[in-house]
Each structure stands twice: as C-alpha cells, then as structure tokens.
Amino acid sequence: MTKKELIDNIVEYIRNVNNELGNHYKENIYQNALYYEINNNGYVAQTEVIVPIHYKNFYVGFERADIVHYENNEVKLIIELKSQNQRLGSKEINQLRKYMTNLKCEKGILVNFYETLEIINVTNESFQKI
Predict the structure, then answer these.
(1) Given 3-state DSSP classes, what are the helix, strand and coil percentages for the chain, each rounded to the nearest 5?
(2) Fewer beta carbons within 10 Å, N or C terminal of the chain?
(3) How far from each other are the two terminal CA atoms of the chain, in whole angstroms?
C-alpha cells in the first residue's frame, strides 16, 4: 500500500467518524471512535502511545501521541486529534512534528473535530490542508 493510499483511507475513516458523531464531543470520544474505525478496517494502531523526550541523551519525560499506525513494527503514521474551538495552527503542527521526530515517522495527520472538520497532512518539511 502506498503512503497516498494510506492517507486517503485514514482521511475517509476520519470523515466517517465526523459524520457519525457530529461535533462538540471531547477529544477522547473521537479518539476511541477513530481507533475502532482504523483497526476494524485491518490496520494496526494504538492509542496514547508514549513519546519519549530526551535532553542530551538523558530521558527527561514523555508525551503521548493520540493514535499511531504501525506496519511491520515500524511507525508509519501519527494521528493527532483536537476538539478545540479555534483553528489549527503552528502550535499544533509543531506538536505533531515533535512526535514524528521522536518516533522517527515521516507522516502525520492533524485533525480538529470541533465545529468544522479540519484535516492537515503533515511532514517534517511541509503541511497541507485536506
């Protein structure tokens, strides 16, 4: 499966969740629904994946990525979800990019489910609204 096919399929699942649930739920509701949708369609994913943070090779803590998709035990896609009443911006994009760097992943999708569905395809070099 190509990266484009993977992204297209995940975006379809995101839209399915949005169409079924609507808006104004808390983030964890969308996370659980999208996790179900992804795994129910044959993909391997986990929620609340630990993202270790190091300072000069010293472990200083961790953050959590909302959903991580794996292929052959490699991280292939990180999905960061929001349900906030403001548009997605550089803060959220940079948060996802940090996760991508720390988990050695080239692709991410940033989603805001609040009032109007926002989906952004993110790489370390660029981002594009879908």
Answers:
(1) 35, 35, 30
(2) N
(3) 20
The widest CA-to-CA distance across the chain, in whole angstroms, is 45
What is the reported pLDDT for 3? 87
DSSP secondary structure string, 10-78? Answer: HHHHHHHHHHHH-S---HHHHHHHHHHHHHHTT-EEEEEEEEEEEETTEEEEEEEEEEEEEETTEEEEE
User: Can you give the CATH number for the domain in which 56 is found?
Assistant: 3.40.1350.10
At position 92, the amino acid (one-letter code) is: E
Predicted local confidence at residue 82, as pLDDT: 96
Q: How many domains does the chain divide into? A: 1
- Rounded to two decimals, the pTM is 0.94
**The domain containing residue 47 runs over which residues?**
3-129
